[in-house]
Here is the input.
Amino acid sequence: GAGVSQSPSNKVTEKGKDVELRCDPISGHTALYWYRQRLGQGLEFLIYFQGNSAPDKSGLPSDRFSAERTGESVSTLTIQRTQQEDSAVYLCASSLDSGGSNYGYTFGSGTRLTVV
Amino acid sequence: LAKTTQPISMDSYEGQEVNITCSHNNIATNDYITWYQQFPSQGPRFIIQGYKTKVTNEVASLFIPADRKSSTLSLPRVSLSDTAVYYCLVGPLSGTYKYIFGTGTRLKVLA
Here is the structure.
């Protein structure tokens, strides 16, 4: 597609439930990134993918968080047994993996997760 | 990872030129400087990118001195719609790179 698409745009879930957040990157972008943004704060890095592999999972806050990517395309971020502190906007971005000039990341509009 | 420092917030009035300076004292030789803009309820959006001297596009100008230890984003004649958070980041272009976004500079444009 023309941009990075995330779904759902909003998700309200009960504490303890599992949620899946989806990201469709720009076609041909080999790198994909997940960030979390709490209200009024900056972006917190979670994980990134090069192709279908995740070389850096250092930002995942706990083992309740996991992510996968298939077909060098769609990525899913899964949060198990959600807690109230998981409430945030989850942003996905993709980028070209190539030498030379590029235009950095292209972000989606995010999924606003509210845990009640 | 090059660390950046920028003001937490700035206020300006419509029609004024706004300059936001970012410090990046330990920038590496192959690092570029990139600025993003984020409106409420949206993901950050690329504004401008440069390596040295001056870069200008339809949105902004980026000034980078010879030592590259800082950079200044210049927004000409701001309007209310330029109210946003502006992030300064440094990193290489080639390959994948994990950009670290700080809290950015919250620009508020007043009427």
In short: Chain B touches chain A at residues 34, 36, 41-46, 49, 87, 89, 93-96, 98-104 (CB under 8 Å). The longest strand of chain B covers residues 84-91.
